[in-house]
Structure formats: C-alpha cells, structure tokens
C-alpha cells in the first residue's frame, strides 16, 4: 500500500474536528503542500472525495470548506474536481433520494446550504470555463428548484446601495458647500492675509520697498494696530535682512507659528476635502461646481506657497 502523502495526512487531521471552520494552521499547511507539486494537488482531490464519502456530515462539511479554498486558487484543482462533479454534488448537496446526507441532521442542513452557496459562487467565477459547473448549477436551480442565496445578486445590490449612499452624501456636502462657500473662502483668506503681514515683518525687504508715512500717529496705525509692530516692521525694512526672533518680536513669531499651524491643520485639509467633493459629485448643472473648483484649486496653490514661505 502506498504511503499517504503529506496532503492526505493533513486533510485527515483537518476533517476530524467538530469546529465550524477548518483549523487555520492546518489549512495553511494544506495550501503549502499542494503548491509543492502537482502530485500533492492530485492527492488532495482524491483525499477530499474520499472524505466526502464518509458517513458523517461534519467530516463532509469540513472537506467542502477545504475544497472551496483550493478550488478558488488552483486551475489544476478545478480541472480535476469537475471531472466527477456530479458525484461531488451528490455527496455534498445530497440531491439524490437514494443518497441522502448522513447524520447528524443539523450538520447535514448546514452542509447542504454551504455547498449550494459555494456552487453559486464557483459558477459565477468559473462557470464560463467549466461546462460541468454550469450544468450542475442549472440542474439544481432550474430542474430541482433548489433555493440559492443569490449571493452575486445580493453583492451587486449592496454595491449599488453603497454607491447611491455615497452619491447622496456627496450631494449633501455639495449643497452645504454652496451655503458656506463665501464664509469658508473669507476665513481662509483672512488667515493668509495675517500670515502675509507677519511675513512682511520677518522677511527680507529691499530698501526701495520702504514707504514712510509719519504724518500723524493715527496714520501710522493703518495696517498694524500696534505701534510696536509698526516699529519692528520699519526696523526690519531698514536693515534689509531677516529679523531674528528675540524678546521684542517674540509675539510676532508666536503668532506666525499659530497661523501656520491653522493653515496646515485646518485650511489646507478643508480645501483638499472640498476639491475632492467637487470632483466626485454627480451633477446636472456644473456651473457652480466648475467655478468653485477653479477657485479652490487656485486657493490650494496659494496655501501651499504661503505654507512653504511661512515654514522657512
């Protein structure tokens, strides 16, 4: 008598369990073994068919689960199994009156339902390539009138439902954007303007950029409300070099860091999110979408530029 192959021994161990699933470690070992050679794969087909003949539905159930794992992964395995596919269905579904599924009856019901579910899945994935699959599926569904779970149809319906929900979410976001569009732009622009004012203080300026206006004390506080900030700005412009942080101008640097953080952690993400919404939303009237998208892209470029300057 020939020595049992590695795969046969593993399948024997995997099908004696009372669990509802195949032991993951044994399943991985079976997959590894059948990948090692065609001989092991052929041995797996024979061993699984032998276990499907066992007079216990639990053994057959676990054999069917292992069969599914190998069927979905190996063309050779599929080609070998469909040769005796009628026998496989008889032993797993029990559709022949003279070949009922063995006890226990509770497991037999689970075995039948799982086998029908897998047949539907296999037919959807590979039926076009294997005539035996198509014939088996058609016979059980249309001749014997077995109820199939319509797994593929359910999956497609679930996908359509998800797509519809996603479309509605985008439409809701789009309608919300139309209401807050002006305020969002104004808030972002305000932050950019504040950063620009801070950068004027701490950035290099040419001598001829300097504009003096000492007419009155009120005139001096046109752009900057603080006389201290105005003086720091004038000093930096006169020196023509970048101001280093010190105790006198620390408030400006602190403000710049906070504004930079706000720009990156909030405004940049906001603009990116709205660009994504505007690109993906499905609309009949694109007028506002196109206009808003252009402005947000421009704003995104400005933010990236200011972000880079502020980081330096």
TrEMBL record:
Molecular function terms in GO for this entry? RNA polymerase II complex binding
Q: Which SUPFAM superfamilies match?
A: ENTH/VHS domain
- Which GO biological process categories is it annotated with? response to UV; transcription-coupled nucleotide-excision repair
Coiled-coil residues are none
Q: Gene Ontology cellular component? A: chromosome
What PANTHER family does the record tag this protein with?
Answer: UV-STIMULATED SCAFFOLD PROTEIN A (PTHR28670:SF1)
Q: What is this protein called?
A: UV-stimulated scaffold protein A-like protein
- Organism this protein belongs to: Iris pallida
Q: What is the organism lineage in this UniProt record?
A: Eukaryota, Viridiplantae, Streptophyta, Embryophyta, Tracheophyta
């Amino acid at each position: 008598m020939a020595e049992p192959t590695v795969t046969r021994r593993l399948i024997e161990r995997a099908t004696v369990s009372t669990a509802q699933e195949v032991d993951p470690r044994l399943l991985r070992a079976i997959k590894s073994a059948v990948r090692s050679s065609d001989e092991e794969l052929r041995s797996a087909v024979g061993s699984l068919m032998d276990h499907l003949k066992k007079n216990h539905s639990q053994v057959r159930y676990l054999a069917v689960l292992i069969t599914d794992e190998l069927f979905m992964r190996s063309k050779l395995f599929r080609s070998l199994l469909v040769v005796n596919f009628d026998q496989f269905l008889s032993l797993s579904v029990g559709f022949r009156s003279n070949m009922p599924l063995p006890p226990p009856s509770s497991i037999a019901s689970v075995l039948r339902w799982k086998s029908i579910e897998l047949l539907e899945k296999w037919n959807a994935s590979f039926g076009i390539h294997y005539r035996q699959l198509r014939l088996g599926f058609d016979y059980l569904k249309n001749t014997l009138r077995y109820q199939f779970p319509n797994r593929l149809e359910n999956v497609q319906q679930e996908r359509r439902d998800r797509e519809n929900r996603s479309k509605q979410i985008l439409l809701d976001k789009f309608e919300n954007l139309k209401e807050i569009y002006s305020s969002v732009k104004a808030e972002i622009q305000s932050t950019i303007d504040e950063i620009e004012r801070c950068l004027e203080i701490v950035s290099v300026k040419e001598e001829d950029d300097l504009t003096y206006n000492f007419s009155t004390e009120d005139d001096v506080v046109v752009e900057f409300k603080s006389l201290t900030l105005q003086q720091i700005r004038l000093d930096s412009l006169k020196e023509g070099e970048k101001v280093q942080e010190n105790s006198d101008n620390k408030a400006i640097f602190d403000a710049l860091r906070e504004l930079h953080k706000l720009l990156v952690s909030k405004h940049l993400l906001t603009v990116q999110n709205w660009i994504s919404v505007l690109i993906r939303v499905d609309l009949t009237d694109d007028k506002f979408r196109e206009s808003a998208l252009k402005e947000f892209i421009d704003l995104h470029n400005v933010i990236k530029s200011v972000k880079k300057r502020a980081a330096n």
